[in-house]
Structure formats: C-alpha cells, structure tokens
Here is the input.
Amino acid sequence: MDVDGRGSAGVGLRKGAYLAMESYDLVVIGGGPAGIQGATTARILGKTVALVDRHHELGGAGANTGTVPSKTLRETAVVLSGLRSRDLYGVDLSLRRKATVADFLRHEQHVKQGLNARFNQQLEACSTCVFFGEATFLGPHTIHVRGRSSGEASDAHKEQAALDEDRIIRGEKILIATGSSPSRPGIFPFGPGVFDSDTLLNLCNLPETMAVLGAGTIGCEYACTFAALGTKVHLIDGRDALLPFLDREIAAALVAEMERAGIVFRWKERATSCVVEQAPCQGGPGRVRLGFDSGESLVVEEVLVAAGRVSNTATLKLEAAGVKVGEKGLIPVDPSFRTNVPHIYAAGDVIGFPALASTSIEQAQRAVQHAFGRSPAPGTPELLPHGIWTIPEIGYVGATEEELVKKGIPHVVGRASYADNPRGRILGDLAGFLKLLFRLPDLELLGAHMIGEQATDAIHIGMMAMFAQVRADQFDDMCFNLPTLGELYKYAAFEAILAAEKIGVDRPLPVAAPEAL
Ligand SMILES: Cc1cc2nc3c(=O)[nH]c(=O)nc-3n(C[C@H](O)[C@H](O)[C@H](O)COP(=O)(O)OP(=O)(O)OC[C@H]3O[C@@H](n4cnc5c(N)ncnc54)[C@H](O)[C@@H]3O)c2cc1C
Ligand SMILES: NC(=O)c1ccc[n+]([C@@H]2O[C@H](COP(=O)([O-])OP(=O)(O)OC[C@H]3O[C@@H](n4cnc5c(N)ncnc54)[C@H](O)[C@@H]3O)[C@@H](O)[C@H]2O)c1
Here is the structure.
C-alpha cells in the first residue's frame, strides 16, 4: 500500500485520520525499544506501518519501567547521597540532607516524559500510525485492537479514550514485540509495601529498611540504589552466588563493595510467606513480615520482588495466528527472527535471552529488514557488551576466566587498577579495576571485565578490540589519551605481556601501524 495514499489529512498520532486505513505492510505489536525500532526500520524501507501499544506512554519497559528509569534513579541516588564526591575532596558529603521520595523520583519523571515525547515525534515524523489498545490475533494477518473506549478508560484518559476505538487491522507482515513483565510469585500480596520493578515507581516514601527478593540484575541494581540513599537493604536469593555469569573476580569485588555499602546478603533463602502488617504511608512506615524456608523471618518497611520476568504473550491469542509458544511464554524464532508462521516475526524480550534493550533494538531491525527482503546478517551479534548498573558499575565482553579454564584455553591475565590510573584517582574511585584475558601464545584478547566508575562505557574499547582481534602488544604499542580510563587497557595488556614472558611466551612481532592521515 502506498503511504501517500493516506493523504495529507494527518499522519502519525492523529488517530481519527486513519479509520479507513486498516491494512498495512507491517503491523507492530508493542511500542517498546524493539517495536519502535521495527516500525522505524519499515518506514525507512518505504512501507506502511501501524504500531499498537496498550499504554499511552510509548517506550515500553525500556523507557517507562526498566532500563532508563532504573538508571536515572541510580544516578539520582548517587548524586543525592554525595557518593560520587565522597572520595573527591576528602570531605564526606553523603546524605547531608535526607532525600525525600519526591527528590528521588523527580529526575526520573523528567527523563521519562522527555523520552515519551521523543518517541511520539519519531513515529509521527516517519508517518507511523499508532493505535493505543490491547492487541489480540484474530487470524494469521488480522489483529483486533481493543481500544480503551471499550469500557476501561479512567477519567484522566477520557479524552484520549474517545479516540482509542476498537478496530481490526491487517498486516501483510507482523512483528510481535510485546516484551516481558515481572514474574509475580503467588505468595506476595503486591500493593502498598510490596513492589515489583514496574510498581516500584509508586513508592510513597523512602524506606529505612527494605528486603529485595532476587539477587539477579534487577535486584542487585536496585539494592545498590537504595543502599546509596541510606536504606538498610537485605538482598535475598535462593542461590548462593551473585550474578553467576560474571567473572568470579569481578563478582567478588562487587560483593565486597555492596557489603561496604551496608547491603546484607541472605543466600539460599526462599521466601515462603509475606504479610503486610502495616501498609506504608497510612500513618507511618510500612511493616512487612517475610518468612523463609529456613524457618527464619525478617521484618522490613518495604519489599521489592525481582524474581525474574515472563514474556507478554498470554493475552495475544497466538493460537488464532498459529504461532507456537515455548516455555515461560517465550516465542521461538529462527536466526532471522521468524516464528513458525513465516510472515510473523518476533523480537526483544518476548523471545527471551539476552532480553536487553540494546539487543531488542538490533533484533527488531534485522527482523524487519528480513521481512522486506533486505539481507541483514542473521541473528544477534555474538560479541555482546554487557553493562550492570550496580554501585560500582560493571562492564564486560567475551569470555570469563572460568570459561577459559573450563574449555582448557591457555591464557594470561592482565589487570590495571583505577587507583594506579590518574583518571581513576580524579574520579575518586580507588576500588575499580580492569581485567583482560589474552589467549596464549598469540596474546589475542578473549575477554574484558571492568568494575568501577564508567565501566559500562569503557568496556566498548574491549568490545571493538575483540571484534578486530587485537593482541596485547598492540594495546601496549598505542598511545592513549591521558588522563583516561582507556589507558587502563594499555597497562593491563602490559601486565599480561609480562606474565606471558614469565612462562616463556615472547611478545609477538609488531604489526605495522596504520599511517597517520
Ligand atoms: C528494572 C529493569 C532494568 C533494566 N535495565 C536494562 C539496562 O540497563 N540495559 C538494557 O539493555 N536493558 C535493561 N532492561 C531490559 C530492557 O528494559 C528490555 O530488554 C527492553 O525494554 C525490551 O524491549 P521490548 O521492546 O522487547 O519490550 P518492552 O520494553 O517490554 O515493550 C513492550 C511493549 O509492548 C506493549 N504490549 C505488551 N503486550 C501488548 C498487547 N497485547 N497489545 C499491545 N501492546 C502490548 C507494552 O505495553 C510495552 O509498551 C531492564 C529491564 C528492567 C525491568
Ligand atoms: N543492566 C542490565 O542489562 C539489566 C538490568 C536490569 C534488568 N535487566 C533485564 O531484566 C532481567 C533480569 O530480571 P531479574 O533480575 O528479575 O531476573 P533474574 O532471573 O536475572 O534474577 C532473579 C533472581 O531471583 C531469584 N529468585 C527467584 N525466585 C526466588 C524465590 N522465590 N526466593 C529467592 N530467590 C528467588 C533467582 O535465584 C535469581 O537469582 C535480565 O534478564 C535482563 O533482561 C537487565
């Protein structure tokens, strides 16, 4: 269908203009990072696109409840607590004034509003029709959008709801990008005092004590954020190791820093009961009692449950389209992100691991390119950087030392600490370090792991070096800006070269440097 065929009566979010327009080259279900990218990619390819989301704020978990809010709250906590300045001037500026929940949430709300507006503009600028409502399949090409005017609209949304009518739309191709939601184990009475990562933003006060159930990425990041604000945090997990996918040396350093921040770990504990004895903000702080399988109990003001996520597929009626669903509601896809129904694609959290905003965007772009006959490289790149916004933050790419040992790959390790690096000292981070793993005997970089300020950014040097199959001696031969954290790569590489020499492996012959322009 010709985009221009819609006329110039209005494009983008002015929904009334599109009632007659019911068939599209692509229908995208879900307006999170994957859906927005998928819609934009299709429009760049000149296709007509409708995007459906059940929330009026576009951006999904990426912008509204997950990636950006959690990182904004972390940044706010670091600033409000004075943590970043603690080692800078020899003066502890921490918690000079007790932060209120309004202080804590203000920046997050601004950032979110800015992003929501940007997404609307982005889709409007590329003439994507956006429909707000719950999408369900009626058949392999047809989708019912249940507008909010179907009876659920709150007063606040009445005007908008009048525009959100029920409609049926047809997609020649369809991209499912409905994301994931927090898993809600039945024992938890979610509401005031008991939150998940979606409802946490409804906090009415900053608790003195908090239990975080689940020491996965979400649990660890929020435990650090609240600990920075002065909350006494208990981090509880049924397992006995923190973030088992991390290089163990980095994980141990993180545990030490989290304990230093006052976080109490409770390993191998599973909650068996949770009772709200006093809801917070009803005449005082909350009082929630947790019972564990060990027989112990714990009373805290508030509980955050971060016990994993489930795919948003339960209400899609995928059976009407013939799309198969796997474990935990995940949609299986091929390397081009096609489901078992060839014209229906799926990308982002709804297909599972790695379930990151960054990878969701890449997947959706590849899926849509494939759908319209472009031939992108299939699959997600194997070399994925990971960032974890604990305090301190962690960045890593490639193999851990444990993986190399397990696979029997001979290697040497080089480390460089922030304390020995001028930029590290300027930042006041004396505990951070970079750990590089080089294969023997050729000294090619196989893994980079970093903990400390700005580690999630600085790890991209390691990623590009791994992509270009860079060796330790090449890091050593290059000139790095000073003072920077990038320089850590040079010193870690140098340490690895020395370690290799000690066991009789010579420094490789230099590679000719590229000529300067
Ligand atoms: C607390 C937290 C912190 C995170 N931090 C990071 C991070 O630092 N870095 C990172 O890369 N990733 C992070 N993530 C993960 C990241 O948020 C997700 O991987 C990403 O948002 C997935 O994008 P998506 O488009 O697949 O799905 P989502 O962002 O979940 O968007 C799905 C959209 O689909 C809509 N939808 C669902 N079902 C329907 C339906 N039936 N009809 C209509 N609309 C529907 C939803 O309303 C939603 O807008 C974090 C997640 C959380 C929860
Ligand atoms: N920086 C990032 O990239 C980032 C940050 C936050 C979230 N995310 C996304 O969110 C996902 C992580 O979500 P998550 O942390 O909720 O899940 P998770 O599965 O990573 O961790 C859940 C933890 O809860 C524990 N657990 C579950 N049930 C329990 C119980 N009854 N008692 C005790 N412990 C229990 C598990 O052992 C596990 O350690 C990631 O996969 C990623 O997609 C990414």
